[in-house]
Amino acid sequence: MDILKFITAGSVDDGKSTLIGRLLYDSDAILADQLEALHASNRKNDDGTIDLAILTDGLKAEREQGITIDVAYKYFETDKRKFIIADAPGHIQYTRNMVTGASNADLAIILIDARKGVVEQTTRHSFLVSLLQIQKVVIAINKMDMVDYSEDTFNSIVADYQKIAAKLGITDVTFIPVSALKGDNIVYPSTTMSWYTGDNLLQHLETVEVNRDNTAAHARLPVQWVVRPQTDELHDYRGYAGRVASGAFKVNDKVTILPSGFTSTISKIEMYDKEPAEALAGMSVTVHLKDNIDISRGDLIVNSAGEPQLSSAIEADLCWMDTRGLDTSLTYLVQHNTKTVRCKIREILYKVNINTLEKDFDEDFKLNDIGRVVIKTAEPLAFDPYQENKANGGAIIIDSRTNVTVGALMLRQSAE
């Protein structure tokens, strides 16, 4: 069954956790023990109904403060689709958490409080969605019950948001008026907004088309392990194991090994005890080649008809995730798929004020800052521009002294 991964984002108190709680509750996706704990909870809404936000507020601090701090992942399914939900924090203090949760999302739900309309944080969340190349966006205009389910209010917010979307290049946007508290247009159609004739939220999530890149042009297999048993029964066995990051490989495809540049042809694909003719993105496989080539962990097998860029100086967008600021004098580690090499931040081109979208040329890069940098790596990386292939365009920066992940990279283009 197809899986849709989506993230929710919005300002503090816009009702993200309540919306997800309502989605799970009304679609009967709550386990019996969770349901029992929910009914036994002392947390109630002002009208005496159960506070559904506690289904996602897992941290004690979240329950006490009524805010989302860390990304909470929830899983559920309907007859039509499986879902992975990332409930992301909305506050600017937790920008790094949202970036982490959104990095693998197919769709983003951005909540807007109908009473407040488009606010500064709406622009910030939309910028992050645009930066992370999430193609499908749902604007859930929440708390419609508090504006008397006004169509004029809904239309005004739609017009305001469309200006932001145009500025950021977000083109696939769906607007849905909802009340997470009352359940309007979440799983069931609203009986109080007859003027809205579109799908409710669950219907949209079940039917929205997500583009899966299964083309040969973006076929990328980061080598995780060279399988060489060297036993009497498997004396000549040599396979290259890994998870297909993007695209599709087929038997008899001509492939190139990077960074070496050697070429060969796929002779066989193994997956468990089967030998499929094709390996698609997300499949863990072992690939056999017709030629014996020096290949090791960290190398990248690609289709020769669509090779990525190969460079040791790369321009990239950087989200800084450490409480200690970026130090351009230090040598860090960059991990790109299965390859880890030393690197330095050669140049900070600019930072982005993610509330105003203006460029800031202050080179003091701190926690939650986002901007454009040039990295210099000890060995060349075989990468695709993030905007063309997220799976082979993302990387992380690690502090070699502490082994802590300190930054997320969206690789853009060669800087050589």
In short:
Helix 5 links the parallel strand 4 (107-113) and strand 5.
Features:
416 residues; single chain; 7-stranded antiparallel sheet; Elongation Factor Tu (Ef-tu), domain 3; Rossmann fold; globular
Q: Please, could you describe this protein's structure?
A:
The chain is of the alpha+beta class. Helices cover 17% and strands 35% of the residues. It has seven helices and 22 strands. Strand 21 and strand 22 form a beta hairpin.
Which helices and strands appear, and what pairs or packs with what?
Elements: E1 3-10, H1 16-26, H2 32-40, H3 60-65, E2 72-77, E3 82-87, H4 95-102, E4 107-113, H5 120-131, E5 136-142, H6 151-168, E6 172-177, H7 201-207, E7 220-222, E8 225-227, E9 239-243, E10 248-250, E11 254-258, E12 263-270, E13 278-280, E14 284-289, E15 300-303, E16 309-320, E17 332-336, E18 339-353, E19 358-360, E20 370-383, E21 394-399, E22 404-414
Parallel strand pairs: 1-3, 1-4, 4-5, 5-6
Antiparallel strand pairs: 2-3, 7-15, 8-9, 9-14, 10-13, 11-12, 11-15, 12-14, 16-20, 16-22, 17-18, 17-21, 18-19, 18-20, 21-22
How many individual domains? Answer: 3
Describe the strand arrangement of the main beta sheet, using strand numbers: 7-15-11-12-14-9-8
Classification by helices and strands: alpha+beta
Number of strands: 22
Radius of gyration: 24 Å
Helix fraction bin: 10-25%
Beginning-to-end CA distance, first to last residue: 44 Å
- Taken as a percent bin, the fraction of beta residues is 35-45%
User: How would you classify the quaternary structure?
Assistant: single chain
For the record, the CATH class of the largest domain is Alpha Beta
The fold-level CATH name of the largest domain is: Rossmann fold
Let me know the CATH homologous superfamily of the largest domain.
P-loop containing nucleotide triphosphate hydrolases
Q: What is the architecture of the largest domain at the second tier of CATH?
A: 3-Layer(aba) Sandwich
Task: Give, in order, the helices and strands.
Answer: EHHHEEHEHEHEHEEEEEEEEEEEEEEEE
Globally, the shape reads globular
Main sheet?
7 strands, antiparallel
Number of helices: 7
Which ranges are low-confidence, i.e. pLDDT below 50, for 5 or more consecutive residues?
59-69
| Mean pLDDT reading | 89
